Amino acid sequence: MDLLRLFYKEKDLVVSPTRYPKPISQAAENITIITAKNIEDMNAHTVAEILNRVSGILISSNQDFGAISLFHIQGSGSRHVLVMLDGVPWNYLNGGSAETNSIPVGIIERIEIIKGPALSAWSSSLGGVINIITKSAGKSEKPDGSISASYGKSDSLDYRVQVASKAGSVGYYLFAGYQKSDGLRDSRNFDNTSLYSKFKIPFSKSVNIGITMGCSAPQIELGDFPSVDITQTGDTRTFFGTASLDALLNKDLSLNFSVYNFKQKSVITNNSLGLGSTGFAGELFLNTSFIEETTGGSGKLVWIHGIHTAVLGVDFSRGKLDQTITAGSYLQSLPPPYNEPPTTKTHPDINKWAIFVNDTIAIDRWTITSGIRYDHNDITSSFVSPSVGVTYKLGKDSILKASVARGFTIPPLSWTSGGALYLDPNPSLDPEEVWSYQAGAETGAINYLWLKAAVFHHELKNALTLAYGEPPANDIYINEGKVRRNGIEIEAATVAIYNVSMSAGFVYIDINPTNERGLGCNYACDIGIRYDDKKSFMVELFGNYMWLDLDESSMAEYDDFIWDFNLNKRIRSKEKTATELFLTAHNIFNKSRYTYGDSKNPGTWIEAGIRFNF
Asked: Residues 83, 90: contact at Cβ < 8 Å?
């Protein structure tokens, strides 16, 4: 029984490893793919909810509706993980991490996750890459799409409408969404409106032009933090646009060129709770505003001939950050050196360019992919990232794979040029560097069972560490020491028997030395049970557990499984239309999981909704 092909069909393609589609069986990297169908079945509202089900990704979040979330892949820092959407880097310039609650999940066709460095194809991503690929423009003049609405505890709602079609020769995809919640716990309100559009314009038989535009406006009450005597709110605005050209030059050679503009504005306001350490209740303590704009693009030339698929590409970008720090009266009144001026403004920027090349060689059962990338920026200079990966088919049921890669992550602009409250910029920072070694196997040789296992070793040097300043209130980041991250991932899934299937995953990560919060080792496991008749009814129970070994100062609690329950029922179906009801019960056993005592997760909450597909 060719079980492996039930999970990864030979025709399934993956884009992220080399920036050009190739069969997933030829990818040496540790990759997980999540489809639009997976997202719909779990009734996810944010990218963080989706990624919470992926082995090897640990998420720092209070799990409220629309909550801010940080992603860690195989023990990496959140700034080490590159998030891409439509070819646009989503990471903040100021802090390096990516916040994805501004990305509407309804527009996602698939997410490809590379666990570990992918630097011969991508820039500044020593932890991994989360590549979000959006839905395609319509191919028929007859519209298809969906309308959905859900409602749950604390007036938590999610409305979406999307349609894809053609107007003459021009294909288009349009999306509008609105999310709102009064906060599942501690009045952590959330409100967001999202719009997205995509157009495909045929210029000739061999040339297509693509245009995308999107915007969103998340507003969030982050909650009260009694341990530091503040209450915090966040206000974000994002806008992006892309234009691309795809041309088939001849049967062996194709060209792609794209440009983008991405703007983010993030304002974090900290007011005093009035507990005695930050001023009077309701008084401004600190306001930080980051206005970022990045303009960039990329070009790719792809040559396919015989056993070779070669990619030659360039990337370029210019990023600008306008950073404003406004101190309240309490901070202004402190004695030196702790007193702050009323307003501090900085305007750092960064220019980057890179050239990369890779070649995938497929010979019988072997696939060898080698690549190299040269990156240059005007802050930390240049970096060379080579990689090589090998896959070997042990037959139709099993694949072995191994890879070696060198990678880096550049320091955030606030750490090199902008500064922050009591943080001085350090323009002499170097990139963090990593050598990564991974090996793994996938097999369906055991009847009715698919297994995947991977081991990894990441050797990081020039690790960024916070050095406390002399005099006080002049802290600074420095490059200091080495960090080793070793671990193992195991995943398993069964074929459906009488419409019932099961899945499980386990990851163990050892970090040496421990980081600032005491994190030295962590592990997580997932368990899923699913009934799906493939016609009109699906029910699923999914549990997730993680152990982070944080020190006591975090006031964390996470020693429990969190179980979610999903149910989808199709109540009406015709040839071209279908109506579904869905219900999700979150944290059904009311367990605790939080990494910071002032920001606890919600208890049990239930939502239900309806979806009309046409």
From this structure: yes
